[in-house]
Specification:
11 helices; disordered C terminus; Alpha-Beta Plaits; two-stranded antiparallel ribbon; alpha+beta
Length: 347
């Protein structure tokens, strides 16, 4: 599965923002001409010129890069300001207030549920104050207009909220299916790649622990795969309970990986040895069977510009040495490099 497929929401919002920027930029430019030279609304026209410029900036920016939250938020707030100010300055027969009904859709598409709720409520209150403050709503019938306009806005708001809520829920389910190991709930290989390449912005001080349950095949052979599966679930929980910062991934069979961000060689080694020691003294009672486990661990530190594949390989090599040395041990990639240097010197 392509990692880019996991960023569907970001891609959708980026695309919406790009084309909304273009369309709103054109419309704002047209309205600016009318308000500056025909309607004599100088302040509103000047704001529309600024808004049009910002919209075109957004359009060209999002053609090559992902949009930032502040850009979407600024566009929504600026558009809300223009619509509410225009409603306040113009007569009701200009029908500028109709644009208000488009705002909840835009809020939820660009900013999500939380911002959508707040901004939709804010605009509703502002427009209500403006409309009620007008001396006359002619040529519209006051009661009919206010009721129909209010119900239309509320319906569009409700539909936008329901759609975004459902989209976010199903999007999260799909992401869980793609990123989580179905047995243990730990991240899978794709989740590890996604975390390393997308989420982790600063890799300085990043350590990886490759862990392998010793003689796990014997547990499956002796007690059955159901017991083996429950052991894997308990071990995953064991790792999670002892990680204050970091992530657990199951990358196949009885092999796990743990990322430790913002750590140092001594802390990473001590943490790995703590896991090894605590697990070796933990008794697992499953179906009246008393089972004891040990693990072998390889530890590696991230090197600048290193690929994930090479990063994992260095930890895997250390893990292999831990097994070769009798299992239930922690070996670091640093130890291997030192041994290699000493061996080369001796040769």
């Amino acid at each position: 599965m392509d990692i880019g497929a996991l960023r569907g929401t970001q891609a959708l919002r980026n695309n919406v923002l790009k084309w909304m920027g273009f369309c709103l930029g054109v419309l704002a430019g047209v309205f600016a001409v009318f308000n500056l030279f025909i309607n004599d609304f100088v302040v509103l026209g000047a704001l529309e010129v600024v808004f049009a410029s910002f919209c075109f900036y957004i359009f060209f920016y999002t053609r090559k890069r992902n949009a930032q939250l502040w850009q979407s938020l600024t566009l929504c707030l600026f558009l809300s300001l223009l619509i509410t100010l225009g409603t306040y300055l113009s007569s009701i027969k200009s029908l500028l207030f109709i644009w208000t009904c488009s705002l909840p859709v835009l809020f939820y598409l660009l900013l999500g549920k939380q911002y959508g709720q707040v901004l939709s409520l804010m605009v509703a209150l502002l427009q209500a104050l403006i409309l009620f403050s007008k001396s006359s709503l002619e040529p519209l019938n006051s009661v009919n207009f206010l009721l129909n306009f209010s119900f239309t806005y509320i319906c569009i708001w409700a539909v936008s909220h329901t759609f975004e809520n459902s989209r976010a829920e199903y999007g999260q389910r799909l992401e869980n299916l793609a990123l989580l190991d179905p047995l243990t709930g730990a991240g899978n290989r794709l989740a590890m790649t996604h975390y390393f390449e997308v989420e982790l912005k600063n890799k300085n001080g990043l350590f990886i622990l490759m862990l392998d349950l010793d003689y796990f095949k014997n547990i499956n052979d002796q007690y059955g795969h159901d017991v083996g599966d429950r052991i894997l679930i308990e071990v995953t929980s064991f790792f999670r309970q002892r990680i204050s910062k970091g992530y657990v991934f199951r990358i196949g069979g009885e092999e796990f990986a743990i990322f430790l961000p913002s750590s140092d060689p001594r802390s990473a080694y001590e943490f790995a040895d703590m896991l090894r020691e605590h697990l070796s003294t933990t008794i697992h009672n499953i179906d009246e069977q008393v089972i004891n486990l040990t693990i072998s661990i390889g530890v590696a530190c991230y090197m600048p510009n290193q690929t994930l594949k090479n990063f994992i390989k260095r930890a895997d090599d250390a893990l292999y040495q831990a097994k070769q040395q009798g299992r239930n041990k922690v070996v670091t990639a640093y130890e291997l490099s030192q041994e290699s240097i000493e061996h080369n010197k001796a040769s």
